[in-house]
Amino acid sequence: MSDSLGKILLVDDDADLLRLIAIRLEAAGYAVTTASSGPEALAKLAADRPQLVITDMRMPGMDGNALFGAVRANYPTLPVIMLTAHGTIPEAVAATHRGVFGYLAKPYEAKVLLDQVARAMQLSPAAPGSNPDVEAWHAHIITRNMVMTDLLAQAKLVAAGDASVLLRGASGSGKEMLAQAIHLASARHERPFIAVNCGAIPENLLESELFGYTRGAFTGAIKDHPGLIRAAQGGTLFLDEIGDMPLPLQVKLLRVLEERQVRPVGATSSTPIDVRIISATHRDLEEEMSAGRFRSDLYYRLNVVSLAIPDLAERRDDIPVLANHFLRKLAQRYRKEINGFAPEAMELLIRASWPGNVRQLLNVVEQAVALTTGPIVTLALVQKTISELGEIVPFDEARRSFESDYLVRLLKMTGGNVTQAAKLARRNRTDFYKLLQRHALDPALFK
Predict the structure, then answer these.
(1) Cα-flanking dihedrals φ and ψ of residue 169, to 5°?
(2) Distances from the Cα of 129 to the Cαs of 143, 227, 326, 374, in angstroms?
(3) Residue among 131, 128, 133, 167 at smallest CA distance from 148
């Protein structure tokens, strides 16, 4: 499967047609997973992310349109191709207006199918870890989370153009890393990436740091200073915490964006610039505009494309891989032989609230590495280092909550199909039923 051209999920309630199309795709070099219904397809999507979904339009229960809606809601960059009989062509054409990649009317030629599949694969996000060359531009972003994978796919599409990008996310969620990734994936990657934290520089210095100044412009200006905007010439300027920029500077930044020129403090003429702007904020800029603290005209200049980074608490499947990645790097830095986390310690990391996001996780792991004296980071040590997060629920309570959330997600994925849910959980049906009873979960409620 690792040598295939990509993974495809094929969905059709006609077993013979399903087998025939699968054979054609596998002969062309693709790895194919099949499903005979929409709910089964969603369960398999949750278990193993493909790069393309091909689905029949007409199926009992959840039809192709409903399946597409579910796919688009959860995996917005995953392309979908519809298979349709002659009578449903108008429906398929309408579906393309809603974002379906394409449709094929039955009967269709194998070459037409393979050509459309090849085009869809070019736009599809690669499976996490599948191609190091493709992922080199975001190698510093560690993830196996599907929402993050979709976000990176959107970022790569954005990087191909030159539109201004606004990144939204809580402090510590990785906005600067995503900005760097967009820069590295763009045609500007050989030019400078300059990051400025608008909230960390005093207001009276921010203007001269951004726009530059001429010698003698003010006391202490003993020589010309080009400023950070000009330092990013040909490359990318990342304005972090743009919501903290004072209103007078917002006016000047807007003029720079509109005129593509910058005038240093004390200068009488402007200098042309060629800079891409990526900005970021943890604030609600719509609320800031309503309160008169952020200019709407600047907002629309910066918010040509908006990307939202999920909190760490929304991507808990990334916590083990991030924690172990940080552990390896920090153990090397501290020159310690540490093999990993005790299972109970890792579970506590997974259940923590993480208001400080990835940056806070890094801090907790570093404290644990600094304090540990053995080859394994213990539960007691993680409890000690994580206590600064606030009140920590007892371990047994955290485990029960984790189990309940996990079971609910499985039942939602499988539409209450216990056999499929147990298979995804890698538990036999008897054990799985016991788990459901323990948490008073009725599979019928999810059907």
Answers:
(1) 170, 155
(2) 9, 39, 18, 31
(3) 128
Strands (E) across 335-409 are located at 340-341, 376-377
Helix or strand (DSSP H, E) at 364:
helix 357-371
Residues ≥6 apart with Cβ < 8 Å to 5: 28, 29, 30, 121
Distance CA 192, CA 84 (A): 49
- Residue linked to tokens 């007409």: 58
Q: Which tokens hold the place of 22?
A: 């699968």
Report the 10 Å Cβ neighbour count for 219.
6
- Please provide the distance, in angstroms rounded to a whole number, between the alpha carbons at the two ends of the chain: 33
Residue linked to tokens 């010309």: 224
Query: What's the rounded Cα separation, in Å, for the pair 134 and 292?
Result: 43
48: helix, coil or strand?
Answer: coil
| Two structure tokens written together for 223 | 């020589």
Which 8-state DSSP code applies to residue 33? Answer: E
Q: Distance between CA atoms of 247 and 180, rounded to whole angstroms? A: 27
Reading across the β-sheet that carries 80-84, which strands appear in turn?
A: 31-35, 7-11, 52-56, 80-84, 102-105
> Which residues 6+ apart lie within 8 Å of 427 measured at CB?
435
pTM confidence score: 0.65
Strands 80-84 and 52-56: parallel
Query: What pairing do the DSSP bridges indicate for beta strands 376-377 and 340-341?
Result: parallel
**What are the per-10-residue average pLDDT scores of the chain (447 residues)?**
76 91 92 92 82 90 88 79 74 67 81 88 60 66 85 91 94 94 95 93 86 82 86 96 93 93 87 95 92 95 95 89 92 91 87 90 93 90 75 61 80 86 86 85 82
Q: Which residues fall within 8 angstroms of residue 414, CB to CB, at 6 or more apart? A: 39, 42, 43, 420, 421, 424, 446
